[in-house]
Design a protein that fits this description.
51% strand; Jelly Rolls; 119 residues; 5-stranded antiparallel beta sheet
Length: 119
């Protein structure tokens, strides 16, 4: 298990209050470094890559300043944000800290997680 850092990607839309963050190459057991930016509450997440056998990513959040625990975030219908295939989902909660966590997979699991945020 490793903590995977994120990259802030340049989209050309930053002047409109849009930001894009990427955690790259996440494997089984990896946890993304939490991204802290609650000022952009409209968020979508996109997970893609090689899932491997049983590969699953969950998107987690916390409202704690120094998080001791995280909860799985949900889509607007109240479904947990758990990905076992490529898709894009909107994030319901505006958590202070957001991170992806690969909860299952095998040695071939390699996933990229994108978080799009806007005001």
């Amino acid at each position: 298990m490793a903590e995977i850092g994120y990259t802030i990607l340049v989209t050309g839309q930053e002047h409109r209050g849009v930001g894009l963050v990427k955690w790259a190459g996440m494997g089984n057991g990896d946890v993304g470094k939490p991204f802290v930016f609650p000022g952009h509450p409209d968020r979508s997440v996109h997970v893609k890559g090689t899932y491997g056998a049983g590969g699953t990513v969950v998107l987690e959040g916390s409202l704690e300043v120094a998080p001791e625990s995280y909860c799985t975030l949900n889509d607007p219908q109240g479904n947990p944000l758990s990905f076992s295939l490529e898709k894009i989902e909107q994030v319901l909660e505006n958590a202070t800290n957001i991170r992806p966590r690969v909860s299952a997979g095998d040695e071939t699991t390699s996933l990229d997680v994108y978080l799009l945020m806007s005001k």
